[in-house]
Amino acid sequence: MTDNIGILRGRIRILLGLFVVGLMLSGLTAFPLRIEVDLLQRIVGEGSPTEPWWPGLARWISFVHRGVTEASDLYPFLLYGTDWLAFAHLVIAIAFIGPLRDPVRNIWVVEFGIIACLLVIPCALICGLIRGIPFFWRLIDCSFGLVGIIPLYLAWRLIRRVTGLESSAGAMPAAVEKWAT
Fold this sequence. Notes:
Layout: H1 2-28, H2 33-44, H3 55-74, H4 80-95, H5 97-101, H6 107-130, H7 135-168, H8 174-180
Helix pairs in contact: 1-4, 1-7, 2-3, 6-7
């Protein structure tokens, strides 16, 4: 029974590790926004070799490129907002150290992550509409929540199995054990 629990805990750590890496990469890529938008402009913006395949995307990328470039040149403090976005991703990733160490005791962090992933969808659809973001781009933003929820949900199910196995084996769940001693 403890072998099964160990295997399940290993799978939980892998799933949560994937989520944490995704969060960190998502956060770290928000810092060099100007560099990334310059690169995106060259690859898929107006005048790029890929423009004929999706001219609407090329126009949008060029529009974004102009906006980020002008904001960076004239109003660099506006990009400070994306720095805080990056920072928030890194801080949320740090919160997942708890479930990586003890998933049963810290299942609430996984549940928080699931809720946050679900809330990405209305935020992207509503705020994106208000800010004039094209629908196809809002769907891309929604995909971050949909992709993120997969490892979290799978980890959550495994954590619930571990809790059940520990209970049936007579072992005290970690969250109860803390208060029992």
